[in-house]
Amino acid sequence: MNLKGKTAVVTGGSRGLGRAICLELAAGGANLVFCFAGNEAAAQETAQACRALGAEVDYLRCNVADSTQVKELMETAVQRFGRIDILVNNAGITRDGLMLTMKESDFDQVVETNLKGTFLCMKAVARQMIKQRYGRIINLSSVVGLHGNAGQVNYAASKAGAEALASALHSEVAHRGVAVGSAHPSWIDTDLVRDAAADLSSFRQMRKMLPWPMHATTTVDKCAAAFADAVEKRSRRVYVPRAIMLMHWLRNLPASKLVSKIMAPSLRRIMPQMEREVAELGRSFSARNQQLLGEDEAQKRA
Q1: Please, what sign has the CA dihedral across residues 156, 160, 166, 169?
Q2: Helix 201-209 crosses helix 257-281 at what angle (to 10 degrees)?
């Protein structure tokens, strides 16, 4: 992979998949600007690791749902490197729970970060890429965006929307040299998935019920390598593992009468269990994220 001279912006780049994407792009020769939401120490570690690979790196705190902060992120990249060639919309959150008991704020926060944040970043970078007559945007969608998942109506809607945004913008800017695509990984071995599995036994049972490849877990390194390859090849779709492509072709299968009939007995048992577990936790996101959110709010007040 040769990305020498290219400049990449990665949202949510300090940890997990975002960090792996930054490292993969840095290894390919790209310079990087990434943003983080709350953990500055993790951001510093990512920057140091990318610099060790020879990349020039800048990073800043950014709420991707805030247009002013997003504008600052993109301006930082242009001022530092003169251009933006690659945008990876990776930043995302979850606030899981059944729709009947989901707080409106939990729906709003997920959609604002995962969908509105993606829209704002795409809009902020599109004009620069059109001016260059070159650009590559990848939105992180999900296998959940293809078929939905019980207990994740907010997340599924946001990820389906991220795919639709990519398709729509590609139609608008492809003739100007800008390629826009979406990535559909299966469950990724990240803090988000591990935290949900630790908190909710119903989540673990739900995943086991899903047919292959919908229940598969993918490493962040495999995902990052697939994303970097897609950047270089300007691919419209990224599937990790590649078998997820089948779910894209058969996206209506999970909603079919046959599958619904097969799943019904287990869902009748698991859904009330999930509702009880979320209620007992007293929170809709992990303890680790709750701590990071508290640290972020404290830093804002300081």
Answers
A1: negative
A2: 170
CB 36 within 8 A of CB 12: yes
Peptide bond between residue 241 and the one before it cis (omega within 30 degrees of 0): yes
Question: In angstroms, rounded to a whole number, what is the distance separating the alpha carbons of residues 278 and 64?
Answer: 27
Query: Is 134 a residue of the active site?
Result: no
Instruction: Identify the active-site residue in 59, 134, 155, 239.
Output: 155
13-36 burial, b if ≥16 CB within 10 A, otherwise e? bbbbbbbbbbbbbbbbebbbbbbb
Question: Given a cut of 70, is residue 203 above it in pLDDT?
Answer: no
Residue range 244-273: mean pLDDT, rounded? 64
Bridge partners of 58, per DSSP, are: 33
Rounded to a whole number of angstroms, the CA Rg of the chain reads: 19
- State pTM to two decimals: 0.78
